[in-house]
Request: fold
Amino acid sequence: MNASAGPASPRFATKLPKVGTTIFTVMSSLAVEHDAVNLGQGFPDFDCDPALVEAVADAMRAGHNQYPPMAGVAALRERIADKIEAVHGRRYDPRDEITVTAGATQAIFTAVLAVVRPGDEVVVIEPVYDSYVPAIELAGGTAVAVPMRTDFRIDWPAVRAACTARTRAILVNSPHNPTGTILRADDLRELASIACAHDLIVISDEVYEHMVFDGQPHESVSRYPELAARSFVVSSFGKTFHVTGWKLGYCAAPAPLSAEFRKVHQFNVFTAHAPTQHGIARYMAERQAWREVAPFYQRKRDLFRAGLARTRFRLLDCEGTFFQLVDYSAISDLREADFAKWLTTEVGVAAIPLSAFYEQGTENRVVRFCFAKTDATLERALSRLSAL
Ligand code: PMP
Ligand code: GLN
Reply:
């Protein structure tokens, strides 16, 4: 008897016809299979501060192992409110304006589900992080992708032109994955002008907020009263504290928006992992570790860029995030996905094709490397890349 002779599964049409397995999972699997240095998927290959592990372990030993409050542990919401106020100068009320989530992905998904209805349009900027469009489509909305300019800055006239009477929201990401560009004050003013003119909700993905380099500020939407009043601001402890596997993040939004967010959140996950929340709350009270993140990654960026400058890759600017884009047109004519596969299987360094961030697979002869790695890992990758 073969499997096809077993009970039949019901027939149904996929809700996400364009979606396969994410490029990050695909490239990480290929990297493992070929023993490649994995500069593909964005995660650190070094451990977090042991004090953070102790704080979470202590929380478990202290019995913080049952459901925390739906919106998150109170002490953590306080620490988040304090951090946002210290860094961006806006006070969110921890009681009804901050919600702790199971990572930024869940926060973005929840915000989208809370505000997007069938028939709504949501503007996204391409290259676009892979979770945004499926979230919009699952909510019954339509994603309207506006390509960045060739210098990977937002084309505001094009964004304005893309807005219609059906546009409900705009999703922005700064510092930007994968391009490493950041929004500047004049970008925020354009965003505010468009959002106010079209009465849009803004979902601002700021997971790399503490990775902005060369002394530039992170222009959070929370700094701009007109924008803050209409925005869900999303961040992730996974990035800030080097613990991507812990999947803990948060969403800050004015009370009326947070109330709608929580209506969805409570049936989406109800609440996020309790001991991690207690542990991070204590850790944040003890030290302001987020202040060390920018210099830490800036040094890695500089080390990696200095090495790449000795190869045939052409470096694009990197103002923030832990990603570096490189143009490989002096090395190969392959399409990006093929080049990334070849680099992984034949050269032994995994990368992510930029085309994966475009709905139509736009080609730029550019791939993304992640430099959230030990210096030894970066040196190992560089020695392989310099042979090209
Ligand atoms: N947004 C962007 C731009 C990201 O790069 C990532 C993460 N890797 C996320 C959201 C998701 O963050 P989390 O792991 O906290 O869900
Ligand atoms: N955000 C990470 C990246 O861009 C990956 C997260 C994931 O694998 N979903 O590489």
User: Anything to note?
Assistant: Residues 293-308 form the longest helix (16 residues). The mean pLDDT is 97. Residues 179 and 325 are 6 Å apart (CA to CA).
